[in-house]
Write a structure and sequence with these properties.
- This protein is α/β, with parallel strands linked by helices.
- The protein has 2 domains: 107 residues, Rossmann fold (3-Layer(aba) Sandwich), CATH 3.40.50.720; 178 residues, Rossmann fold (3-Layer(aba) Sandwich).
- The protein is 31% helix and 17% strand.
- The chain has 10 helices and 12 strands.
Length: 309
Amino acid sequence: MKVLFVAGDPKPERWTDPIQALLPEAEVYPWDPDGPAVDADYAIVWQPPEKLFERETGLKAVFNLGAGIDGLLAVPNLPPHLPVVRLEDAGMSVQMAEYVLHQLLEASRGMETYREQQRQGMWKIHRPIKRSEWPVGIMGLGHIGKRVARTLANLDYRVNGWARGEHKLESVTTYAGADGMAEFLGSTRVLVNTLPLTEQTRNILDYQTLSQLMPGAMVVNVGRGEHLVDEDLLRAIDEGQVARASLDVFRQEPLPADHPFWQRPEITLTPHISARTLRGATLEQITGKIRAHYNGQPITGMVDTGRGY
């Protein structure tokens, strides 16, 4: 069995050494853009170059180093029938739930107000939170979206969920498809986007979507930067429809220094850190699946490339 690691890391041994330890029966190779084909059986990738699929024509499957596979599906010569396997959780869903909860608590508990009072040496207690005033809507009910929804519901926030297809989730009111979108948005004050990026979801956070939220809404985008139409968010903030936004992903990363988001106090920016890939858990999962696939056993995480997730 031959495994090829293709992720653009300047120190690929940080990955290939543990892969070799976890798969001692395999020959593990780092990607060499100028080298010959290694006739790999499997490739572990993150945003691979086109040359990979020109050179390695005998691949049995390709394993993505993240849950989002839009970068891989964008490679124009990805063989249409090559099995694509995405990363399932590996410690990311709990990080995402923590991140969203933190952003929600900052707003709902008024923590910014208390920090300002501390700077002023002021002791003043404000009224307790009313969770009924902070209904949350989760867009995307995959593994990560469900973990976020359950976490917030367990803290007695009213949680709605929306996805392309039908889902059932305890303590969460779910909506599906175009028919359920308007009711979902109209009952949401805090909109959390965890959707995968597909042609159907690109630009989904536009002015039309934002204008259907409850007045004074909050937007948390931890999906992809291409989900959000930047100028539409700014318009919604200027008009008072959106009161604040927490953004972890952007159309261009790093976010350019002259981007207007930097200057807006209503917007909290973080540099794509809501859920970091944990190397150990990730490689244990991927190498376990490679071994199972090689031995003819079924594996989970298979991507429907036609749907984009």
